[in-house]
Amino acid sequence: MAQQEQNAAQSASVQTAARLRTPERMQVHMVMQCVNDLVPASHQVRTVVAFVATLDLSAFFEPIKARIGHAGRDATHPMVLVCLWMYACIRGIGSARELARRCDPIEGNASFRFICGGVTVNHRMLSDFRVDHADALDKLFTQIVALMVNKGLVKVRRISQDGTRVRASAGAGSFSREETLEKLLEEAAKHVAELRKQLDDPELSAGMSARKKAAKERAAKEKQERLEQAIAELPELKKKQEAAAKNAGNGKCGQKIRDKEPRVSTTDPDVRVMKMANGGFNPAVNVQLATDTESRAIVGVEVSSEGSDSANLSEPMRKQVEERTGLKVQQHLLDGGYLKLDDIEQAHAQGVELFMPPKPARTPGTRGKELEPKPGDSAAIAAWKKRMSSEEGRHIYKERASTSETVNADLRTHRGLTPLVVRSLPKARCVALWCAMAYNVMHFATKLLC
Questions:
Q1: Are residue 243 and residue 190 in the same domain, yes or no?
Q2: What is the C-alpha to C-alpha distance for residues 181 and 232, in angstroms, rounded to an integer?
């Protein structure tokens, strides 16, 4: 004890002798700061803001209820919100809460505060804006692609398409069979009726605010609607199951498919269990991207609940690209999973050359001979086989991996195409569109502003 007192005395003596700077937290500082000075002149965020200012955002103004001459709070300018989400995706931010933290006037990031310019935002506003303007987002993406076409950056003579499976917000335990779904729907309908009766009774709902009443009723109705949608998905799943069983034949494999009852998620009826890149199976959506092989720009985006790429996804994507760009696709590069003879015939009739490898033969003796001509081959199949067996065709097909694979990896790793926190395919498509636009803006905004 005496030794400790001696050490404390020596420490106090040393501190008294030293000259130190100590914090004074009650001191008032007058700080004169301009938002424009937060980021340097060459910062990337200035390019994003300048580019968005050149776009036509009129489609985002239509739902705004705050109008001159009418009472109500002013709405946040759509240009601010578009810039925020565009720059957030460029920085790999896919969470509305994280974006709101970056925009905090005191603790936020300088680049995001520069975009806000003193306008305050919260995570609810940001989350709603990201997924509530599907048509406006689609038009904005088309507008950006059209600008790249007009500048000669994109030609879409040859496009590459591939899908990437993105983890959905639904849990594996949320999938139920038809019998369970009907039981849950009956319980949900009963709960909605009881809740409405409780909320209408002044005594039972005493002390509950109108906002809380509305939230409770909305949550109960949304649950009932999701269950109704889940049951509505069952006939289509049964039809696909029958087709898969028919293709598998009458053996054990076909019987196994027939015995398996279709299941739908009660959390998000749109998603399906898919095989992921890591070999596991999770609820997910299939994000399809079409890329111009010359410029590596994303020119088409679609989101599907189909786990297989062979589910008639190539022709609609080709049509979408042509509508967005106004140009004709001449060559279409696809993974082997897309292979369907009907698609080859259809593309040939449209004057489009498909480049995709054949599926491996089932019998070992015929493997490696899939591209050999056969007497019954149509003109389209014969042309495809000749194309894919040639040295030039193999060289062209190599561009698929160097474009689609790298673009998919870029969006998943750097542009916020992470496991989804939104539900339903339309909302997932909005997220995919934001990520695709961010990719295009990051790579081409400087050239488009010239």
A1: yes
A2: 11
